[in-house]
C-alpha cells in the first residue's frame, strides 16, 4: 500500500471560486445559459445544431428559445449554478508535482439547513483522467441533475489528474484511483467545510467504471468509516494483499464487508470477467438471497428497463451489512440517439440512468444508513499525507512524479528478462505473439532481405514493379499471380 505519514501536515488548502484544471465558459448559443463543454463551444451537440439552424432560417433569439431542446447527455450545468460551487485545492502527495482539485457542491438551500449534511464523494471514469474528456460532462454532472442528491447531500468530486497523487497504477499497470490519495484529499475537504456543515456519520462513496473499481479499493482500507457505497459498471478491484488470488480476503476486508451497505449497478451481457457478482456472493457469507424485479426509467422519455435485484442482508449494528446487485439485461436500447450513433446498444454506460433519475434510488440508498459511532472519522483525526516516491521506485517509475514523461512503465512483469516474461505468461489465458517476416523463413516462406531467397532479390521472378506492389490491391487486380505464388 502507499506509504502514509500521519501527523500535522501543511496541506496549503484553499477554497477557490474557479478551477485551474476545469475551465467554465458559457454556451455560445444565444439564449442558452448552460456551461459549454470544453473544445466544443456548446453545452451539447443538439444545442450547436439548433444554433446553426437558427442562423440559416434567421430566427430571432426568442423564437429559437421556444423551439430549442437539449441532447439527453447535455450536462445542463447552469452558469448561475456554477457560481455556487467551490473548488478545494490542496497538496496531498509529497512526491507529486501538482496540487489536486476537488469540486465541492453544497446542497440546495444550504444556508437554511439547521443540521450537518451527509456527503457523497464521487469518483469518475478513466475517460476523465488528465483532462482527456471534459470533467463536467458524462460524470459528476449527471449526479448533480438528481434532485434528491442536490437537496440532501454535499458532493465532493476529485479531478483525476495523474500528477497529483490521486491516481496510481494497479497491479496490472493500468490506471487506478489511489485509495490513500483520495482519502487524504476527501478528509481535507471535510475539514475545510467543518462540523457545522458535515455529518461524519453519513459519508458515502459513489463511482462509475474506473471510479467503481476505486470504490472497492477505498472500501478495502477505509470502508469502516463510510455509511454506504454504490458502484456503477466497474469490476471489484482489490489492492495488493487485500484479497490474494485463490485465498480468503484479509481480516480487514472481511470486517468491512460484514457491515458495509453496498449496492452495485451492472449491465448483464453474459458472464463478464469484470462483473462483481461472484465477489458479492462470496462476501455475503451464505446469507439468504432475496430477489425482486423492478421497472425503472430509461434515458428517452417513456422508456423503461427491467432490473433484476439481488439482495443479501446481514444482521449488523445500525441496520448495515447489506449487499445488493441491480442487474439490467443488455445491451440497452432505451437511448435512441446513442444506439444510432454507435450502431448497437449500450453495454457499459448505465450511469446515464442511475445518476440523474431518482427512480434508481441512489440517493435514498445512501441516506438510509449511518456509520456506527465508534467507527466514524472525526475532525480530531490527524491529517493524512501520502508519499508515493517509494511506491514509484518499487513499481519501476524512477524518480519522476506521477504523470510526467520521464516514467518508464514496467507493467505486470516481475522482472524485465526472459524469466520475468515466462513467469508472467504462466498467469495468462490469452497470448498474442507479434513477429517479423523472418520468423516464417524456416517454414519455407521467404522474407524480404535474405540474399538469394528474399523478395528483394527476386523481383524479376515475381515480375514486380517494386517490392511492396505484391501486397497492394491495385497490382493484385492487374496481376494476381505473384501474390498467389508467394502465399
Strand order of the largest sheet: 2-3-4-6-5-9-10-11-14-13-12
Task: Classify the beta-strand content into a percent band.
Answer: 15-25%
Average pLDDT value? 82
Spatial shape: globular
Q: What class do helices, strands and sheet pairing give?
A: alpha/beta
Low-confidence stretches: 1-11, 56-67, 397-410
- Radius of gyration equals 27 Å
Q: Cα distance, first to last residue? A: 53 Å
Helix content: 25-40%
Count of DSSP H/I helices: 17
The major pleated sheet works out as: 11 strands, mixed
How many strands in all?
A: 15
What does this structure look like?
The protein has 487 residues and is α/β, with parallel strands linked by helices. The chain is 26% helix and 18% strand. It contains 17 helices and 15 strands. The chain has helices at 45-57, 61-67, 79-82, 140-144, 147-152, 179-193, 210-222, 251-259, 277-283, 336-342, 351-354, 362-368, 389-394, 418-425, 459-462, 473-478, 481-486; strands at 4-6, 14-16, 86-90, 100-105, 117-123, 154-158, 167-169, 175-177, 198-208, 228-232, 261-268, 289-297, 304-313, 322-329, 384-386. It has an eleven-stranded mixed beta sheet with strand order 2-3-4-6-5-9-10-11-14-13-12, sandwiched between helices. A two-stranded antiparallel ribbon has the order 1-15. The chain has a two-stranded antiparallel ribbon with strand order 7-8. Strand 7 (167-169) and strand 8 form a beta hairpin. Helix 6 (179-193) packs across helix 7 and helix 7 (210-222) crosses helix 8. The two termini are 53 Å apart. Residues 1-11, 56-67 and 397-410 have low confidence and may be disordered.
